[in-house]
Amino acid sequence: MNGTHDGRRRFLARGIGAAGTLFVAGCERLSNSDWFPKVLSAGEKASAAVAHAITSRKSMAQEFTDADRSPSFRSNGTAEPDSDTYRMLAANGFADYRLEVGGLVAQPASLSLADLRALPSRTQITRHDCVEGWSAIAKWKGARLAALLEAVRPGPEARFVVFHCADPMEAGGTSPYYESIDLEDAFHPQTILAYEMNDAVLPIANGAPIRLRVERQLGYKHAKYVMRIEVVESFVGIAGGKGGYWEDQGYQWFAGI
Length: 257
Ligand SMILES: Nc1nc2c(c(=O)[nH]1)N[C@H]1C(S)=C(S)[C@@H](COP(=O)(O)O)O[C@H]1N2
Ligand SMILES: [Mo]
Fold this sequence. Notes:
The structure is a single chain. A hairpin with a 3-residue loop joins β3 and β4. Residues 6-46 have low confidence and may be disordered. The protein has helices at residues 36-43, 48-57, 84-91, 113-118, 145-152, 183-187, and strands at residues 99-103, 109-111, 121-130, 134-144, 160-165, 178-182, 192-197, 200-201, 211-213, 226-232. The chain is of the alpha+beta class and 257 residues long. The two termini are 22 Å apart. The protein has six helices and ten strands. Strands 2-1-10-5-6 form a five-stranded mixed β-sheet. Strands 3, 4, 7, 8 and 9 form a five-stranded antiparallel β-sheet that branches. The protein has a single domain (2-248), classed as Sulfite Oxidase, Chain A, domain 2. Residues 76, 130-132, 219-220 line the site of molybdenum atom.
């Protein structure tokens, strides 16, 4: 991880906070699920200003063409998790990798890479914006997080999806890397668990075997090396309680761009 993030917080001033979690109305399929009515009734309390911000959250992030792709896409933060478990998985081409999915779900799951590749996928060419002041455009392919969540069925209390990563706690660090998004971003069509980058298997430097792409959010939300997904109602009891590794150190939880 890189301490220079601290100097760049001016990019993060625009949080709309918890109100951003309220609207999933764009996704008709969700209206049949248990948790939708609760989310909607909370949303009805939102102010007009917040409603405007929420409307813009339903939009798609800009997508680009093959020709727009950056000649290279750097690795940032962890480039290879310093973990024996991770090294063993990598040595075997991640054949033994399992993505654990649990928390407030009716049907916890444990998915191999083949299972993830069998889920409905999406391919998109998008721009990654890191708060350290660099951006890059790449093509990503991955399983739609919405499809995975529909399979595990979040319960009525579910509000957030937490991604627990393979990079262990650093010396002087506060927790292993983790991140979280709300259900609106989780069900957004461009939110994927990417296993390919630029038409090749996702490299270790960029988060193999699985990294989150949550295209309307800044780079630090895009958890690499995702090992476990936990559906929760709040962040109480999870690391520093702010919903992410950088958030625990003062970053905005809502990093929408
Ligand atoms: N597990 C994990 N995920 C992470 C990080 C990290 O250090 N560990 N860094 C974050 C930051 S700050 C950025 S900008 C992107 C960098 O992704 P890249 O290495 O593919 O460029 O990953 C994000 N996800
Ligand atoms: Mo970043």
